[in-house]
Write a structure and sequence with these properties.
Length: 174
């Protein structure tokens, strides 16, 4: 891998780590207020555990995790869009969709290091789904869309024949 796609990949990963830290603080603070009490603690712990498990799976087994994250991305994007439709779903569905979108986006950030070609488009899907919700969704969308674009650029740079040092194409690419 040439140097610049690796730098872009690491930059996108660093952005997603920042999103993970800020997003986890926001989600946990939100659920500790509403519903609060032991229910809020249970929701906060379960969200953190699920997100950490997905991120660890994406890091340790990127092949199978990529297939799982494709399915989760589609389901999460559908939940976000349906949860945002007025009169179709209760407000809690929209909040659950945004929490799910953030968790999937964090896991996709970890998948982007070994598989930027998969993580980039999936992050763009999550970002576009959350962008239309406004408010918190728009705040999630901007860094997620940026990271998705960066992973996409890194994937193209790694696969482009002239992306290699010296400008020589890889064997078999002509």
């Amino acid at each position: 891998m040439p140097a610049w796609p690796r730098i872009v990949t690491v930059s996108a990963f660093a952005l997603m780590v920042f999103v993970a830290l800020v997003g986890a603080a926001y989600v946990n603070g939100d659920v500790l207020i509403d519903p609060g009490g032991s229910a809020g603690v249970a929701v906060a712990l379960s969200w953190c555990a699920a997100t950490a498990a997905l991120a660890a799976y994406a890091t340790s087994r990127p092949g199978p995790a990529a297939a799982l994250l494709v399915v989760l991305t589609i389901l999460t994007a559908a939940l976000v869009v349906i949860g945002d439709l007025p009169g179709v779903a209760p407000v809690e569905a929209g909040q659950a969709g945004l929490m799910s979108a953030l968790g999937v986006a964090i896991a996709l950030g970890f998948l982007g290091v070994p598989r930027p070609v998969v993580a980039g488009p999936l992050l763009l899907i999550v970002g576009l789904a959350t962008a239309g919700t406004g408010g918190t969704g728009a705040a999630i969308a901007l860094p997620v869309l940026t990271a998705g674009g960066l992973f996409g650029i890194a994937a193209v740079g790694d696969r482009h024949p002239r992306g290699r040092a010296g400008g020589r194409p890889r064997p078999g690419l002509r």
